[in-house]
Amino acid sequence: MQLSVLVIDDDVEIREFLKDFLEGEGYFVTLLADPTHALELLKEDLFHVIVLDLMMPELHGIDLLSQIRVHDDDIAVIILTGHPSLQSATTSIELDVSAYIRKPFTPQEFREAITRISKKKNLQLSREQELHQVVGLKLRALRKQKNLTLKQMARRTELSVSLISQIERSSATVSIASLYKLACALDVRITDFFVNF
Q1: Other CB atoms within 10 A of residue 17 CB
Q2: Domain range list for the chain
Q3: pLDDT in tens, 2-26
Q4: CATH 3.40.50.2300 assigned to 4-121
């Protein structure tokens, strides 16, 4: 199973550390520096877990968490904070966070939190969802390997940037016609997208 994780943190070092760590654990990771764009992103893509920093200049994490809960009251949220307080911990609990982690943290702390969340939320993917993820991950890997941007892929395939991005994130079903266009643009066989499935 592969979880899709959205990391919202204004600290570039934390974002990059979490991306490297979580991708190494086999998760699909999206990074967001500006919390004011979070709700827009949550409406467009499917995420299983949100990692949310509390102290950000544009929008406080607790305020964003309240907004997220209006949009989705079930999504797992991990709070990160370098400034833990009784008030933020209490509010986080009231807003049903799955974990409250203090910075600096160890990879093991994060690993345990994600494992606990997966079990509690019963995040088991169907065979169809697994197929979407395999295709999306392979598409992203092949595109990066050829140093192509989403815009360049869109130009080569006449598919929209949004659709290609959704296919990579496993949030859209890809048609055979679209898969054929993507394979041609990447100079691979369609079957190459299904390796490891």
Answers
A1: 17
A2: 4-121, 127-194
A3: 678 999 999 999 999 999 888 877 7
A4: yes
Residue type present at position 156: R
Counting beta carbons within 10 angstroms of the beta carbon of residue 129, is it exposed (0 to 12), middle (13 to 18) or buried (19 or more)? middle
DSSP at 47? -
89-133: pLDDT as tens digits: 888 888 899 999 998 888 888 888 888 888 777 765 556 767 888
Q: Which two tokens stand for residue 159?
A: 């598919």
The structure tokens listed for 18 are 């979490």
- Three-state SS string across 121-155, please? HCCCCCHHHHHHHHHHHHHHHHHHHCCCCHHHHHH
CATH architecture, domain defined by 127-194: Orthogonal Bundle (1.10)
Q: What is the pTM of this model?
A: 0.62
Query: How many angstroms separate the CA atoms of 133 and 128, rounded?
Result: 9
Q: Report the C-alpha gap between 196 and 173 in whole angstroms.
A: 18
